[in-house]
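Is this the right way to post structure tokens for a design question? Let me know if I should format differently. Anyway, here goes:
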């Protein structure tokens, strides 16, 4: 897919403030610092579109970006950052939960997982919750540039095996690096494919 335009539309503190439209939305979620905002910049090719920081807890609102005037990318606040106070964590969790369970235009939620780590309970519990609530999702293993190819492969296989303990079938899985832009075509092609199937009413 070619990105012809990518525009920041709005930051929303809650679901009811989110922009009104009927276009498909693809949202990014995952632990703070996993690379959600960086991935949005990498996919769109605009490094200043979403705010990135080496300090976790940067994205604090629901951010909508309109792509090619035909679909949306959504950057969500991260979860699981210990230094974000308990109260603030609860605010983010509620914001995300409401968005995920009630946003009618949400077409696929990309759950980002740091490819360097073993399965973390906070992620696997969240993935289980998505399954229980029938939310369509895909997984993206981020920061693949930080690992040697063989280690990356081992880690992803281990993660899949862990998921197979509770899942019969796995969701679509992508591997990305915002540094060397790997995974870009695969993720954009997947989005294009889903958009096409929606248009043809499948
Ligand atoms: N090497 C490498 N660093 C990355 C990659 N993606 C993100 N980073 C770095 O990881 C840090 C966090 O990136 P963000 O994109 O802000 O992470 P986030 O998930 O949006 O974080 P919050 O908004 O705090 O939830 C930054 O220092 C990025 O430069 C990647 O693919 N490779
Ligand atoms: Mg962010």
């Amino acid at each position: 897919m070619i990105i012809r335009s990518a525009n920041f539309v709005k930051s929303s503190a809650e679901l009811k403030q989110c922009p009104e439209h009927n276009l498909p939305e693809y949202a990014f979620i995952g632990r703070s610092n996993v690379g959600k905002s960086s991935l949005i910049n990498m996919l769109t090719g605009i490094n200043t579109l979403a705010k990135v920081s080496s300090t976790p807890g940067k994205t604090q609102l629901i951010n909508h970006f309109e792509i090619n005037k035909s679909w949306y990318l959504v950057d969500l606040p991260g979860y699981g950052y210990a230094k974000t106070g308990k109260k603030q964590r609860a605010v983010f969790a509620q914001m995300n939960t409401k968005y995920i369970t009630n946003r009618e235009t949400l077409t696929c939620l990309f759950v980002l997982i740091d490819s360097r780590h073993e399965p973390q309970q906070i992620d696997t519990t969240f993935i289980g919750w998505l399954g229980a609530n029938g939310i369509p999702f895909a997984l993206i293993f981020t920061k693949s540039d930080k690992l040697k190819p063989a280690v990356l492969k081992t880690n992803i296989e281990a993660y899949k095996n862990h998921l197979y303990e509770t899942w019969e079938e796995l969701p679509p899985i992508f591997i990305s690096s915002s540094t060397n832009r790997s995974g870009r075509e695969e993720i954009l092609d997947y989005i294009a494919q889903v958009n096409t199937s929606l248009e043809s009413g499948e």
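Format looks fine. Someone answered above. Worth noting: The beta strands are 6-12, 25-30, 62-67, 71-75, 106-114, 137-142, 173-175. The CA atoms of residues 115 and 141 lie 5 Å apart.
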